Amino acid sequence: MEAFAQVNQGFLAFSALFFLLSLVNIGKSLNSNEDYAFFFVLINIFVLFFYMKSDYALLILIFTFFSVLFFIFAILKDFYAIAYLDELTGLPGRRALREEFLKLGDNYSIAMLDIDFFKKFNDKYGHDVGDQVLKMVAGMMERTEGGARVYRYGGEEFTILFPGKNAREAYPFLEELRKRIASRPFIIRNDKGRKKKDGKGIKTREEVRITVSIGVAGKTSNAESPEDVIKRADKALYRAKKKGRNCVKF
């Protein structure tokens, strides 16, 4: 009986440890909308609850086992986010795009999207506001139809992949995306506005329009690699900028 009590105490300590770890982890999960930490906490609460009621050693073992699984899942998910997801926008990054290239068939198109005059925008309003623009554009890109897969390529540049569609078939979805971004006002609130007599600032509100330029290219031969298609999409993006920006070009 004494040995059994020691085993129970060990399970309690083990469960309590994972309960504390889950409390630490849930703060991070609330920022990234990951539900695993919520279930992780609930499981440990059940463990402690049943232990305090009576000596359910087997039940404690089962719940603790699942707590460990959730904890491992949480760690793996964090590792995936660090390796594959862009921290600012939450979109898959260039590494994820490279891995997606390995799964592509013979029919696909790639679009390169660039936010117009983004450097000037950053210089005028600051990087914090620029980050908000990047997140807004990324969020709108995620709603692109046609089976589009969206990635942040770097800086103000994004990549949109259309498996199973050539450039002509992808064009209407890209044009619809361009129009949605151009028609949505972006509000900048400035607390450092003009001064009142008492020296306090008056909040000002400025509405600006964000536009994007897009270049799209599709695979044209079996010998062509996704990297080759991206280069042609980049050239198409350059043509879009030369044409005055805020347009989609092949």
Tags for this entry?
single chain, 250 residues, alpha+beta, Alpha-Beta Plaits, 5-stranded mixed beta sheet, two-stranded antiparallel sheet, 57% helix, 17% strand, flat
Query: Can you tell me the residue ranges where pLDDT is under 50 for at least 5 consecutive residues?
Result: 29-34, 193-199
Count of discrete structural domains: 2
Net shape: flat
Q: How much helical structure, as a percent, in the residues?
A: 55-70%
The proportion of residues in beta strands is 15-25%
Q: Would you count the extended β strands for me?
A: 7
Task: Order the strands across the largest sheet as they lie in space.
Answer: 2-3-1-6-7
Give the class from helix and strand content and strand pairing.
alpha+beta
- Rounded to an integer in angstroms, the radius of gyration calculated over CA atoms is 26 Å
On the 0 to 100 scale, the average pLDDT is: 79
CATH C-level class of the largest domain: Alpha Beta
CATH fold descriptor of the largest domain: Alpha-Beta Plaits
**The CATH homologous superfamily of the largest domain:** Reverse transcriptase/Diguanylate cyclase domain
End-to-end gap: 78 Å
CATH A-level architecture of the largest domain: 2-Layer Sandwich
H/E topology pattern = HHHHEHHEEHEEEHE
Structure, explained:
It is a single chain. With 250 residues, this protein is α+β, with helices and mostly antiparallel strands. It folds into 2 domains: 2-84; 94-249, 2-Layer Sandwich (Alpha-Beta Plaits). It has 8 helices and 7 strands; from the N terminus they run ααααβααββαβββαβ. α1 runs antiparallel to α2, α1 packs parallel to α3 (57-84) and α5 (118-125) packs across α6. The longest helix is centred in the first third of the chain and has 31 residues, at 2-32. It starts with a helix and ends with a strand. 27% of the residues are buried. Residues 29-34 and 193-199 have low confidence and may be disordered.
